[in-house]
Design a protein that fits this description.
Elements (H helix, E strand, L loop, with lengths): L2 E6 L5 H10 L4 E6 L11 H17 L4 E4 L2 H14 L5 E2 L7 H4 L7 E5 L1 H5 L1 H10 L6 E4 L3 H10 L4 H12 L9 E5 L7 H8 L2 E3 L2 H11 L12 E6 L4 E6 L5 H4 L1
Parallel strand pairs: 1-2, 1-3, 2-9, 3-4, 5-6, 5-7, 7-8
Antiparallel strand pairs: 9-10
Helix pairs in contact: 1-10, 2-3, 7-8, 8-9
The protein binds D-glutamic acid.
Length: about 260
């Protein structure tokens, strides 16, 4: 049985886990949600790297054969250090899919990339942006609160109206700018694609399907057949223990 580990500051990485359930259903999944230290967005590289190392050690105790750093912020700050500290572990990171601009036909396209503050400030993101978008065709906006709002809605989905109005406030400054596409540079954001597309009147671009394909390409025993595996293991750093959860409940609050 293939065992795959994932982690994020919270439930943002569910956007990747959800793709993995479709393309690699037979694997056993171990998801670490670092809620006790969320959000990562305002934290320093060193703080996030310290957490990423502790989390990796916990996932390795479960004998995972590969770890998805299901968080743009942790990828930007920590993946190099993780790869050098754990050279035997394949790590798959996530970065905003900036290639999208150049893959799309010329014409009426105006794109932006949305990230957390920490990702936006990171050297890794700056290098990626310079390399993939040397003419600065894609505008970049760091969002201070969006990941936190999504995280808190997931845990308290009872007040949908409040959530929608807070998301609208956070995005207000982007509304009149007439973007046609938003590249989502935080794994929390694809969880609310339908809100983002409605509020901003554009199409969103998520890296999650590409990350899932990368995992499929890397796993050794590539058994992609449908399977009766209906659960996944979930660890919250607030509770400090592994729980078995239902796959079908993964995105429940966002599907209502
Ligand atoms: N989901 C994360 C990301 O992809 C982190 C959000 C946060 O904790 O600030 O960047």
């Amino acid at each position: 049985m293939i065992k795959v580990g994932l982690f994020d500051s919270g439930i943002g990485g569910f956007s990747i886990l959800n793709e993995l359930f479709s393309v690699l259903p037979a694997a056993e999944y171990f998801y670490y949600s670092d809620e006790a230290h969320a959000p990562y967005g305002p934290k320093s590289d060193q703080e996030i790297t310290n957490r990423a190392i502790i989390i990796t050690e916990e996932l390795l105790k479960k004998n995972v054969e590969l770890i998805v750093v299901a968080c743009n912020t942790a990828t930007a700050s920590s993946i190099d250090e993780l790869r050098s500290k754990f050279p035997h572990v394949p790590f798959v990171g996530v970065e905003p899919y900036l290639n999208a601009y150049y893959k799309m036909p010329d014409g009426n396209k105006k794109m932006m990339v949305l990230t957390t503050e920490s990702t936006g400030k990171s050297e890794r993101f700056k290098r990626l942006k310079e390399r993939l978008d040397p003419n600065s065709n894609i505008d970049h906006y760091p969002l201070k609160n969006l990941a936190r709002l999504i995280e808190s809605y997931y845990h308290h989905p009872d007040d949908k109206n409040l959530f929608e109005s807070e998301v609208k406030d956070e995005l207000l400054f982007l509304k009149s700018k007439n973007y046609t596409h938003a590249i989502l540079g935080c794994t929390h954001y694809p969880l609310i694609t339908k809100y983002l597309e409605k509020i901003l009147q554009l199409k969103t671009i998520s890296p999650c399907p590409y990350i899932a394909s990368r995992v499929v390409a890397l796993v050794k025993n590539n058994d992609t057949d449908a399977h009766s595996n209906t659960g996944f293991y979930f660890f919250s750093s607030l509770i400090n223990q592994w729980e078995l959860k239902n796959r079908s409940d993964l995105l429940l609050p966002f599907n209502q």
